[in-house]
Amino acid sequence: MSEKAYKTFAEFYPFYLSQHENTACRRLHFIGSTLILLVLAYVVITSQYLLLLTLPLLGYGFAWIGHFFFEKNRPATFTYPVYSFLGDWVMFKDILTGKIRF
User: Fold this and answer.
1) What residues contact residue 30 under an 8 Å CB cut-off, 6+ apart?
2) Which runs of consecutive H residues, i.e. helices, occur in 19-54?
3) CA 30, CA 51: separation in Å to the nearest integer?
4) Are 83 and 19 in contact (CB under 8 A)?
């Protein structure tokens, strides 16, 4: 089965949201993204640069748990890594602003 080739992020984002319909999955994404921001702030304040190694685990770990156990689908990052990364942060913003239910 071939995957659709999205030409723009605007074209991709509705697909991305369709892969995040489960509330628990969205919440896990949000928690992971929040932890990333907190760790980044902590690293800037303390210069504990080794903590940067935890960022992939925090970001992908929470998201993949959401996909595999709650959404029961394959994370979009496996097929669309750049658009998926952008989608994570746009969805984070959309949750913060109330556009998407938390």
Assistant:
1) 91, 92, 95, 102
2) 23-46
3) 20
4) no
Residue 28's nearest CA partner among 1, 69, 65, 53 is 65
- Nearest one of 67, 83, 82, 81 to 32, comparing CA atoms: 67
Give residue-wise pLDDT tens across range 43-89: 999 999 999 999 999 999 999 999 999 999 999 999 999 999 999 99
The reply to whether the predicted model has a pTM over 0.85 is: yes
Residues in the chain: 102
Q: How far is residue 56's CA from residue 9's CA, in Å, rounded to a whole number?
A: 22
